[in-house]
Records
---
Amino acid sequence: MAEITRKVRELEGARPDDFPLAELMAGAEPVILRGMVRDWELVQEGLRSAGCAVAYLKSFYNGRTVGTYFGSPQIAGRLFYNEDMTGLNFDARRARLDLVLDEILEHLEDEQPPTLYIAATTIDACLPGMRAKNDVAFAAYGLDPLASIWIGNRTLVSCHQDAPTNLACCVAGRRKFTIFPPEQVFNLYPGPLDPTPGGQVVSMVDFANPDFERYPRFREALAAAQVAELEPGDALFLPSLWWHQVEGLSPFNILINYWWNVSPKFMGSPMHVLYHAILSLRDRPASERQAWKHLFDYYIFGPSSLPVEHIPEHARGALSPLDEVTARQIRAMLLNSLNR
C-alpha cells in the first residue's frame, strides 16, 4: 500500500481525570492523547511483560466466558471473509478468558501463530474491580460510557465505522489505526451489511495489498487517510462514524475502549433508518428517489427550524423537538405500520 504520510494530530499532558473532552467533541476529528493512561496499573504490568499483564488480568477474572475469535495461522491475523465469501475465515465462540490468555502466551514466540482475539468484552462483566485502578473519569463530564476490553496477538480488524464516539486506550503492545473521514464511504468499497466479521460493515479492500483495478477509488481514500500509531499508555479519540482499520503490531496486545452517545437513549438507531430506507426507497424509480431526497433534506438534514417556522407550535406534532413521549408515539406508529 502507498505510504500514508498524514499523521493524526497529537496532544500531550492529558490525564485520565483531566482531558479536554469538550474540545475534542467540538473538533470532531481524531486526536492522539500521548501517555494519557500510562500510569494505569495494567499498562505498567504490560510494560514489564506479557506474562505480568496476564497475571494481573487473571487476578480480577470471575470465570465468565467471553466472545473469542479463533483463526488458523494462514489468515495471518486478518479477521475477514473466506475466499468465496460464503462465511468468515475464523471461528467465533465463547471461551474462558484465562484459557485464551494462556494460549496467547503459549504461541508468543511463534513466527506464524494461530489468530486469537477476545473482542469487545464488557470489563465490569468479567473483570469486576479492575477499573478502580484502570479507568477514565467520564463521570466528571456527565457520561457513563460502555467500557470494553480487547485482547489478542497480531490481529487485524478490517476498516469499519462505529456509531458511538470512541476513546481507545492502548494498554499493552502497539496499535496502528488507519483512519478515514465518513465521506470516504464511497471510496472504501464496503462489503455486505450481514454477515460481517465483527458486527459492522467492513471495507473489502486489503490495505496491505490493494487491488486498484478492482477498487480504483481506493486511491482517493488513501489521499484522505490519516495514521495513528499508539504505544502503551496512549489514547485515541475517534469521532462517531470515522472509518478505521486496527492492527495489533505486537505478539500480545490489549486495548480498552469507551463508547458513548450524546443523544438521548429514547432516540432510535440510525442503522434502523438505513434498513427501512432499503426496504422502502432504494428500489423505487430514480425520479421518486430524487424527490424523496429533497424531502429528507427538508425535514432531516436541513435546519430544524425550517419545516416548522410557519406552523403554530400546538400543531407541529412529530415536527416538535423530540422528547421521550414523542419518541414513544412515533415508535408505536412505526411498529403498527410495519406489522400490517
---
Amino acid sequence: ASYLKLDADGFTVCAMYRPYTIRWSDVTGFDVGRVGLNKKVMYDFAPTSTLLAPRLRSLNVALAEYEASIPDNYGLAHEELADLMNRYREAALAA
C-alpha cells in the first residue's frame, strides 16, 4: 500500500496504492521540518518545475515552510532519510 523507491532518475512514493514519481532535477533538496506537530522529510520544487501549481506551492510554504513532504519516514530517522535522498539526488545530478 505504501513504499518509497529511490533510483538514478528520481524517487517514487506510493501512498494508498497510488504511486507518483518525481525526478531529482525537479527538487532542490531535502530537509526535516514539521507540519503541525508531525515531523516530516520536506522538499521544495526547482524553480523550473511545473509539478505543482504556483498558488499551491505558496500555500504550502505559508503553512509548513516547504512546498512538499514525503508522507512517511519508512523506518528511518527523518534526518537519515533526508540525508539518503540528498545523496541519491547529488549522485544523479553529478552523473
---
Amino acid sequence: MIVHIVDAEKFLNKTIEIFESIFPNQNYFLVGVEEGEGSYNKKEELIKLTSIEFVEINRKDYYEKFHHNVDQNTLVIFHNLYKTYKLKLIANIQAKIKIAWYFWGAELYGLNPKINNLLPLTQRVYFKNLPFWTYIKKKVFSQLKKQYYWDLFKKALKDKVDYTITNVTEDIDLLDEFTENNSKRGWFTYYSSDMNRELERGSSKKINILIGNSSSETNNHFDAFQLFNEKNIQGKKIYIPLSYGDNKYRELVIKEADFIFGEKAEPLVDFLSTKEYSKIIDSCSVLIMNHKRQQAYNTIMIAIANGCKVYLREENTIFKLLKREGFYVYSIQSDWSKSTEIEMLDIKIQEYNRELIRKLYSTNVVRSRIKAQVLEIFNE
C-alpha cells in the first residue's frame, strides 16, 4: 500500500487518477483539511473511487490516522512539504519506512528566507500599500517563522527524505545550493497531454495576451505591465487571471491594469471552468509569466500545447527545464524587446512544440515513468 499525504486542493483529483490507474486499489489518501475550509466539493465522489479519508489537520484523529496507516506500510509520498504540519509529521516516521516527496516549489521559494521572489517595482508597490502592522508582520515575524520552518525542512531533507521527485530537476539543483540534501532524485509530474483535451486548437483569432496566473505578488504584475510601454496592443485584450491569491494585491493589480490598458484590460476574478479558461487561452497569441520562481507549470504547458508564444524569465527553473527539453520558449529579458509588434508564434514552431509535448508528456509516457519510479523506490 502507498500512503499519500495530500491536501484538499486542485491537484487531488489528478493525484488519485494517476495512482489508481497505475496501482489500482493499492493507495491510501489521507487528505488534510484546513480548519474552516469546509467540505471538498467532490468528496463523496472520490470516496467511492478509492481508499480516502478527509480529516482536519492538527487534530488528534488526524495524527492517529496518519500513524496507523504509515506505520504498517513501506512507502509514504508527501505531495508537497511546504504545508508546515507535514514537516512536523515527517520527523516522527520510523526509519524503516521509505519517504518520497513531490517537490512543488513553495518548499524552496516560500520557506527559504534567503530567496526574494519579487521584482523591484512590484515589491515597492506591494509593501507600500500594506497596512502598517501587516507590513511589520511580513518583514519581521514572517521572516522568523520562515526561518523556523526552513530549519525543520532542511533537517527532514538531510535525515528523513529518501527521494525527491519532480520533473523540474533544475529546482533540485537550486535547492542543493542552499542546503544539504541526502535524498535521491526521482521523476514525477501531475501534467500529461490529456489535460489539453478541452482546447479548441487552430483558432485563427490568436491576438490576445495573458499575463500571470493568480493574484499572488510573485507574478510581478507591475513589472510585467511596464513591458508594454513601447508595444503595439491595438485590438488586443489583456487577460489577467486573478481568481485566487491575495485580495489586497488583486485590487492593486486591477487598478494598475485599468490605468495602463484601459478597456483592453480583462481581469479574471472569478473561478472559470476548464472549458471557459481554455477558450481564453485559445484566443491568446502570447503568454507572459513574469515569475522569478517556478510557478504555473500546468498553465504554461497548456498554453504551449495551444500554440501560444510563451515568455518566461531566464532565472525561472521552468524556463531552464523547457529549454533543456527542446521547447521553443522565449526570454523576457532577451527576446521581448526585439520588436514593438506582438507576433503570433510561427505555425511550424507551434506544431513542433505540440509534437514534443505528445512525445514527452503523453498520458502513457507519464504513467509509465511514474510506475517505473515507484517500483524503483519499492525495490531498492
---
Amino acid sequence: MKDENKHIITGIDVGTTKVCVVIASYIEDKPFEILGVGYSPTSGLKKGVVININDTVESIKSAVKQAENQAGVEVESAYVGISGEHIRGINNTGVITVSKNSTRNPFDHEITEADKQRVLDHAKGITLPSERRILHVLSQEYKVDNRNDIRDPVGMTGNRLEAKVHLIHSEVAAEKNLTVCFEKADIEIIDFVLSPLASSYAVLDPNEKNLGVVMLDIGGGTTDVLVFFNGGLYHSGIIPIGGDAITNDIAHGAMTTIEQAESLKCKHGLAKEALASGDEQISVPGIRGREPKSINARQLASFIEPRMKEIMMFASSEIRKSNHNGLFTFGIVITGGTAKMSNIADLAQDIFRHDVKIGIPSITGGVADSILDPTYSAAVGMIYWAIESGERFDEGDGFPGRLKPVSNWIKKLFSKLY
C-alpha cells in the first residue's frame, strides 16, 4: 500500500567533472531517507558551463539510471544544481512602508507575510542586463523601524520594514543550455539551486552560520566561496580554478595523460609537500611507446601544492571582500570533490590561520553511508533545500512548485527574446 504522505525528492548536481544524483523519500516532520545515489563522470562542461550537450545528456542519464535502479523509482523531475563563472552575488537593501491592517493602533501596523514578500521583492529590484536573471534572494536580516538584527519580522508591529539581502544572479543562456540537456534526458527541472548554496545546507549547521563560517566548495572547474554570519549569507564568490587545474599540473609535471594524472591525484595526491615521503615510489605508465617511470610522493605533492595554495589565496581575497574577516568562530569548512585530498586541511590552516574542517553531508538512514563524501554535498544539500523551501506538498509526490518548472519559464523567456 502506497504511503500518501511520502514524497520523492531528487537532487542532481551537474559539475564540471561529474554528475551526482541523490533520490530521497520524505515524510513531513521526519528525517528524509536516501533511497538511491548515482555518479557519472562527464566531459560536457567547462568551469560549470555546458560546452557539449550530448556528452552532458549521456552523463545525466547514466547517473540517474544508477540512482533509479537503487531506489526502485523513476525520476521525472528534480532540483538541479548550477554553478560556474557566470554566477554573481551582490548585497542589496529593500525598504517599504508596512501595509495598514486590523491593528487597533493606527500608527503601528502588524507585519504580515505579504509585507515580508513585498520588501524582498523591493530588495531584488536591481537593474540587470537582459541576459541575466535573479536566481536567489537570500535574506540576511530585517529592520523594523529602529529595531535591528531581526530574523523574521512577521507578527511584529511597526511602520517601516527594511530587508538586507544577498542576491545571486545568473546567465539565462547558461541555464537554457542546462535545461536543454535535461529535456533531452526526459527530466523536468523543478528549480535551479546554486550548487555551493545547496552544499551549505548539507555540511553546515545553524550555529556555524550564526557565529561565522566560510565554506569553500572546491569542484573540478571552479572554487566557490560562501561567507556566513549572523545566520545569513554575506558574500559569495566564484573562483575559476578547481581540481582540474591540479590535474593539468600533474600531467605536465609527470609527463603523462590527463587520465593518468587524475588517477595519480586521487590515489596518491597530498596537498602539502612537507608531509609527503621522498621514499614512497609511484609508478607512472609510459605513453605511446615511452618507458614507464616512477616519481616519489614528494615530487607529486610538489606539483599539487602550488596550485592548491593559489586557489586558497584567491579564496582568502574573496573572504576579505565580505568585510567580515576575523569574525569566523567556526573557521573554514572545505567541501567538494577536491576536499578529499590528503593534508588539504593542514595546508588550509597554514594559509587561513583558522580552524579547518572537511565538510561531508550530514545524513543518516537509508543508503546514507555510501555518500558520506564531500563529492555528494551539493546533491544531498538540494534535498534539504527542497524540504525547507517547499511551502506545502501536493497529494502526490514532489512539491507544488513555488515557481513554475524552470524549463517552462525559460521557454517563455526565450520566445519573447527571439
